[in-house]
Amino acid sequence: MIESLDTLFCVRGNMFLSQNMLNKLNESFILQIRPPKNHELLTGTNGNWFCPNHGEKMVNKNGYACCPVCNLSISEFIYELTRLNPHLNFEH
Ligand SMILES: [Zn+2]
């Protein structure tokens, strides 16, 4: 992701994040003042997720999408990321 214009642009998803989502991702991944909750992955969301801090592809650890570097899970945010900040459909 690239920080610009007070928000983040998700290059891979080709979208801008809401300020609210940006704040939450910042707190959990960059500042690490609020650990992300471990939510079960929703079915069909095993797609490609990347750590907002390290850019590493999240790996499935016990059903949670976790960064292999910081071990933080993005699972809590997937619902909001896919529903409220819809990524364009893209395939590798
Ligand atoms: Zn990470």
Can you describe this structure?
- By secondary structure, this protein is of the alpha+beta class.
- It has one domain (2-83).
- The protein is 23% helix and 16% strand.
- It has two helices and five strands.
- It has helices spanning 19-30, 75-83; strands at 2-4, 7-10, 15-16, 59-61, 64-66.
- The strands form two sheets. The protein has a three-stranded antiparallel β-sheet, with no helix packed on it. A two-stranded antiparallel ribbon has the order 4-5.
- Strand 2 and strand 3 form a beta hairpin.
- It starts with a strand and ends in a 9-residue tail after the last helix.
- The model has no long low-confidence stretch (mean pLDDT 75).
- It binds zinc ion.
Task: Name the descriptors.
single chain; 92 residues; alpha+beta; three-stranded antiparallel sheet; two-stranded antiparallel sheet; 2 helices; 5 strands; globular; binds zinc ion
